[in-house]
Amino acid sequence: MALETEATAGTSLEAGARAAEPARLARSWRAVVRSLAPVILALIAGGLLLLVLGQNPVRFYVAVWQGGVESGGWQNSAVLMAPLLLIALGLIIVFRAGIWNLGYDGQYLLGAALVAGFGPSILQTWPAPLAYAVLFLVAGAAGTLWTLVPAVLKAWYETNEIITTLMMSFIGVGIANILVKGPFQDPTVNIPQTRTIPFSKLLPNLSGTRVHVGVLLALGAVVVVHYLLTRTSFGLRLQVLGANPRTARHVGISVRRVIVTSFVWSGFLIGVAAAVDVLGLWAYVRANWNPGYGDTVIPFVFLARLNPLAVVPFVAFYAVLSTGGDLAAQQANLPTDFLLVLVALILLFMTVIEYLGRRRDLGQSYLTPGLKEALRRPLVRRRPAR
Amino acid sequence: MNGLLTQSFLTALVAGGIVAAVPLMFTALGESVSERAGVLNIGLEGMMLLGAYLGFLGVYELHSEWLGFGAGIVGGLAGAAVMAVLSVSMGLDQIVVGIAITLAGEGITSVLQQAQFKGKFPGLGNPATVAIPGLSRLPVVGHSLFDQPLLVYLGIGLLALVAWVFRATSWGLNLRAAGEKPEALDAAGISVLAVRTYAVLTTGALAGLGGAYLAIVGANTFTPFMTQGQGFIAIVIAMLARGKPLWVGVSSFVFGICLSIGTALQLTSINISSDVINMLPYIAIMAALILFARGSYLPPALCLPYVRGGT
Fold this sequence. Notes:
The complex is a heterodimer of chains A (386) and B (311). Helices cover 74% and strands 0% of the residues of chain A. By secondary structure, chain A is mainly alpha-helical. Chains A and B meet through α6, α7, α12 and α14 of A and α4, α10 and α12 of B.
């Protein structure tokens, strides 16, 4: 995009610049349409599914709006945005480098278990700011640690990171359960869960609301990551690697280092998401609990074209859909897994719209060429360049 | 009676291992077919669940195992049809479509199950088994190895059949060409898209059958999310087996043992938390990947949509 604008500006007389303006507007308008169309189509298709199940789709979606926005519902939605945004950022960083990190569940739950396990005692004894900082770092480190094996395998042996991150995720979920049932078990209850962090020790709320400061932190992280990705050499290196690994090697980028660094930041942000979520909202972790944020956030990361700022409205939309959808599903006596179907439909419509868009050559693609490149030879060691 | 080598423990381990291995075997066999043809199928998990749910419904409503297995195949085929249209015909990203199919399979089966049974999980009867005369009387493991539902024997026959198709038929050659060098197949006058479409549909049918086996024979019921990542394990098995069906059978059995070791250990006095046991297959896979990743082979055109004249 930036290159194109420069090219136009370079050749341009004033007339050229004036002509470029509407063209750019039209292009961004098309990008908006192509991002929104899958969501709208998915909502319509989901409505048809509701009809099949004998529900009234209009009433369902009205209930979603009422539960997710009206009468204080927006506050629950905003609180839900905090972990979703941080996980989305973690995914954007690796996706931009053309790497798949699908191990978010394990990274998140390990962080959550550690925060809920150490939180009660640390928060009782240490001053709050120090305790929060330590807990954030612990959770971030746990997430990071869980990406290291896939990162090293990918960087040195080109082992497919889709498989390794998924497998590490299953192992991480298991270890989180063992921690919650074992060393972190609350001795005063029979249910397998950690001790509860006292309400007064949770992250403070913004005045007059139930929205905790973690939401602001997540929004701040969006700005920082956006700056990092668009204005620094690290961001450029990610972009080059994502666009074409061979080019990256040719221009002297240390591919291994970029792979490991992007994995590290991805895991860190996902771990911090867990810390924010546990310290801001849940206050404890129960065994076998898994909010499954990562699966649901993936489509919106792609719809936002891996742009941290653009991901905010999409995550806000999903937060409302999820908060209101839980309530609406309860009212309608539907399982909340209905939302999974909606997310899957959004993904499917996204690929179809992308296909139609590519045919008509509109706007940008949601998958960088490098991300596709990364899928080409899973598990196979890199051959010497021909 | 607290040793590891008691007869009851071994019997339970082997029997449970086979029950757990068969769904993996069918699904991984399907994945090797589509991997050979150049399609990585991340949607296996969803296809297994569709097969499991329809298979369960088939037995529940129609009271016939075979109709259940047939219904399971139909379920898997439905998921595969989506994959075939989007990822093969239209050439859309295989991973994104695969993730979508997995999520949709999880969501739809869970919603339908709960809408239909309102929180109940009705069980099915035990499936009929066929004992092989003589062998099933062998001491210790004879009964658990050689007294299986008919489908298990058919599945092992299918492994051999697919191995033969890969090795000795022109279909097998076409499949491999579609994954190795689709341009060459196209130049030879054979439609790459058609070959890949049949491969993906075969995968779906086998994954559906595997899911149906899981529900009908393994669990005797359907519970939402019952596959618990087995679709992904099947992908790894297919990768490690390098598309060789007989290896698919062997590694499925090994992972089946991993999956069933927890149940078998309950018969002994050894007390290990079920969370540790549940992690075993994944730890085994990580170990296998770390040790053998460098030796595995995948077709060069895997995951690349074929566009005639494209780059």
